[in-house]
Design a protein that fits this description.
Number of strands of chain A: 10
Largest interface: A-B, 30 and 34 residues
Radius of gyration of chain A: 21 Å
Largest sheet of chain B: 8 strands, mixed
Structural class of chain A: alpha+beta
Number of strands of chain B: 10
Distance between the termini of chain B: 48 Å
Strand order of the largest sheet of chain B: 1-10-9-4-5-6-2-3
Shape of chain A: globular
Helix content of chain A: 10-25%
Order of helices and strands of chain B: HEEEHEHEHEHEEEEH
Number of helices of chain A: 2
Strand content of chain A: 35-45%
Oligomer: heterodimer
Structural class of chain B: alpha+beta
Helix content of chain B: 40-55%
Number of helices of chain B: 6
Order of helices and strands of chain A: HEEEEEEEEEEH
Chain lengths: 166, 206
């Protein structure tokens, strides 16, 4: 390898590595998951739920799966009203458009946790990994909030109300 | 026989149409507007028999003497049922604060008796609200009762094991103290809307 070729090769290597690092960094930053929360689970119930909002500042992406150490399985689901009946269906993937917040919320899209290894208690937090087609895995902390008796607005955790109050 | 049957059928169709038109007309006049539907005339329900989580009968007599909020679902439901029960629980607390709760009772009817045993129901409803009473029963009895209330539910084919989802109407039915269906609150529910709707219905009656 001549000296010229060697320097060319080194230049290419630096460029490639730089591009990889840059894109990696962009991917990690491009997906932000906020307002991740869950409900406490009633006694004897080993199914739970996770809600959150995905903000994608990068290119269009897809959420293709989820997992959590607290449950055997974490699946993407949607509750949908059809002909007066609420139907819950499995989703293989959810498009996460750039610049458009994608909400997972009660009576809509959610992550269903099955085979919970222990009950989810108010005040707890647990990790959830969301797998994106482009951005890869994104880990979030899900807070268990809202006792059953006080609903979502309990204990001042309802962000929409807090904003209104300001 | 045949022409008579046709005539009967025609009469029934006319009666139903007239009922709907009357319902729409009277609704625009003095029907309270709620997040759901108020019956122009409270609807009488045929006798039915389910079982409460404590073993007593859940039937027309159980509904008599109090206003009853009845929600339908199943305990393995991860999203819609806990959401609605949390809202209904909050509605109960708001009604209590307003002094409109003493004459009320609250039921959670599971349409999934196969998985929802009385003990499971007892623990489940108490988790949301100590006033909540769970009830369920045989498929036949459930189908009869839910149909009259306008609630639909269906199981996936060949339901087996523990992990199946049940499609179901997510409505909260309101029975008056004469055990007649007075109103139906439709999904999505908000505690404040249930309270406001109930207040309007009470006001109409007084």
């Amino acid at each position: 390898m001549s000296e010229r070729n060697a320097s060319r090769f080194a230049g290419c290597l630096v460029l490639t590595l730089g591009a990889l690092i840059a894109s990696g960094g962009a991917c990690a930053d491009s997906i932000q998951v906020t307002e991740a929360w869950s409900r406490p689970t009633p006694p004897g119930i080993d199914v739970g739920v996770a809600y959150f909002v995905i903000n994608n500042q990068g290119r269009n992406d897809r959420l293709v799966g989820a997992s959590s150490p607290v449950a055997k399985r974490a699946e993407l689901h949607i509750s949908r009203m059809e002909g007066g009946v609420m139907k819950m269906r499995h989703l293989n993937a959810v498009d996460v458009e750039s610049g458009v917040p994608t909400s997972f919320e009660p009576s809509g899209r959610h992550v269903m946790l099955t085979g919970l290894k222990q009950p989810l208690k108010e005040g707890d937090a647990f990790p959830l990994v969301l797998n994106f087609a482009n951005a890869g895995p994104v880990k979030v902390q899900v807070r268990v909030r809202g006792t059953a008796g006080t609903g979502e607005g309990g204990h001042g955790t309802d962000h929409s109300k807090m904003k209104q109050a300001r | 026989m045949r022409p008579r049957k046709v005539a009967l059928f025609a009469a029934a169709v006319v009666a139903v149409c007239a009922g709907i038109i009357f319902g729409i007309l009277s609704r625009s006049d003095d029907q309270p507007e709620i997040a759901g539907f108020v019956y122009p005339e409270p609807k009488t329900i045929s006798p039915f028999k389910l079982t409460e989580h404590n073993g007593s009968s859940f039937d027309l007599d159980a509904l008599k003497g109090k206003w009853s909020f009845v929600y339908f679902g199943y305990t393995y439901c991860p999203d819609v049922c806990p959401t609605t029960l949390a809202d209904l629980s909050r509605a109960q607390k708001l009604l209590e604060e307003a002094g409109w709760d003493a004459g009320n009772q609250y039921f959670f009817v599971s349409v999934d008796a196969q998985r929802d045993t009385p003990q499971r129901l007892a623990e489940y409803v108490a988790f949301f609200n100590k006033k909540f009473v769970g009830a369920t029963g045989a498929d036949e009895a459930l189908t009869k009762f839910t149909q009259e209330v306008g609630v639909l539910y269906s199981f996936p084919e060949g339901r087996k094991g523990k992990s199946y989802a049940v499609d179901h109407s997510s409505t909260v039915a309101l029975f008056d103290p004469n055990a007649r269906l007075a109103a139906v609150f439709t999904s999505p529910h908000k505690a404040e809307e249930i309270v406001e709707g109930f207040r309007k219905i009470l006001r109409r009656r007084t």
